[in-house]
Amino acid sequence: MALLKQSCCVAGRFSTNHRWLSPRSTPLGYSSCLSTAARSSADREDMKKELQSQDGPGLQDFISGELSERSKWAEYRGNLKRQKGERLRLPPWLKTEIPIGKNYNRLKNTLRELNLHTVCEEARCPNIGECWGGGEHGTATATIMLMGDTCTRGCRFCSVKTARRPPPLDPDEPYNTAKAIAAWGLDYVVLTSVDRDDIADGGAEHFAKTVSSLKERNSHILVECLTPDFRGDLAAVEKIALSGLDVYAHNVETVRELQRYVRDPRANFDQSLSVLKHAKKVKPSVLTKTSIMLGLGESDQQITSTMAELREAGVDCLTLGQYMQPTKRHLKVEEYIPPEKFAHWEKVGADMGFVYTASGPLVRSSYKAGEFFLKNLLKKRKEEISAAEGDVS
């Protein structure tokens, strides 16, 4: 499973699967996120005070979607699009504090006792408290990273450790993971992993064993698997799709035109699309899900075309969020997308027919996963009951 991190400045995501946590990035709220070597100490102090101000939107603003009233905080004077040699200033809508769930320490101690590595997938995600045993929204969720913390790929947006041959898998991990999750009494869990191209099936059997072990312990828990692309091995995809999971997620990361620029050469848009298509083919009832980072230099037309391709492939759920640079060695943020533009893409997704579209500056790939899935299940159940009652009458 993964490494537990409390840092809040998220950027590059975990290669092709678990997303947007930068283990070595600098926390938001510190001037070092934005300052340059040439900036004077006085300027840095002013910037620090600005970042620590409480005029920005709160968590509830992001949850409710009430982000259009820009007058609620100081007008942003920086550029949104990066000029040559420039490093963009962080806009006010990306300044937020991390709420920690009341069960955070209890879950952390359980993991240590079982010798497991675990992560809230996106430490800067608005629902991190919910991910760690929250209940504010009526659900309790967690994101677990399987197969260690070292990836065999090197995407340009991601700062996860890489190696050609990471440590071998822990054969007890599926059992220990299921045991820990069952003890937490969660409603929803997201299982994700690094890429393991060094393993014949990419770790698909490891994923499947974890899901089946978990379902055996608690058949009511909802399980989402956010998987690698397994080098396009559809047999591996099928193994996980038929393991008993409820949501099959795999992230395309960016628009088609930027794939080679952003992702490891071993990943590509068509390969990722084939993963999502095949999961749906072998298990039509499963929800498929993917995520796109914005702010890497993509155009509006490229975003629209990518969303259309995903929908044509039968993808049910889509999340769109702001890319954040993890370290100076990684891709720079080309543009900070304002909240109003994210709201536009959410509407576009709804109009295209996605079952669920989450789009916002702080949205991450497992954003409010348990809440939206449970809500949709309840809605569907009510509709079926109403329809049945109508037939009887």
TrEMBL record:
Known EC number: 2.8.1.8
Broad class of where this protein is predominantly found: mitochondrion
Q: Which InterPro entries match?
A: Aldolase_TIM, Elp3/MiaA/NifB-like_rSAM, LIAS_N, Lipoyl_synth, rSAM, rSAM_sf
| Database matches in CDD domains | Radical_SAM
Q: What are the residue boundaries of the Radical SAM core domain, all occurrences included?
A: 136-355
Which keywords belong to this entry? Answer: 4Fe-4S, Iron, Iron-sulfur, Metal-binding, Mitochondrion, S-adenosyl-L-methionine, Transferase
Broadest EC class assigned to this enzyme: transferase
Pathway membership of this protein? Protein modification; protein lipoylation via endogenous pathway; protein N(6)-(lipoyl)lysine from octanoyl-[acyl-carrier-protein]: step 2/2
* Positions in coiled-coil regions: none
Tell me the compartments it is located in: Mitochondrion
Which of this chain's residues are annotated to bind [4Fe-4S] cluster 2? C151, C155, C158
Asked whether the keyword Nucleotidyltransferase is assigned, the reply is no
Q: Which SMART domains match?
A: Elp3
Its recorded reaction(s) are: [[Fe-S] cluster scaffold protein carrying a second [4Fe-4S](2+) cluster] + N(6)-octanoyl-L-lysyl-[protein] + 2 oxidized [2Fe-2S]-[ferredoxin] + 2 S-adenosyl-L-methionine + 4 H(+) = [[Fe-S] cluster scaffold protein] + N(6)-[(R)-dihydrolipoyl]-L-lysyl-[protein] + 4 Fe(3+) + 2 hydrogen sulfide + 2 5'-deoxyadenosine + 2 L-methionine + 2 reduced [2Fe-2S]-[ferredoxin]
Q: What are the GO BP annotations of this UniProt entry?
A: protein lipoylation
**What cofactor is needed?**
[4Fe-4S] cluster
Family (UniProt): Belongs to the radical SAM superfamily. Lipoyl synthase family.
Can you say what this protein is called?
A: Lipoyl synthase, mitochondrial
Species name for this entry?
A: Fundulus heteroclitus
The record lists the lineage as: Eukaryota, Metazoa, Chordata, Craniata, Vertebrata
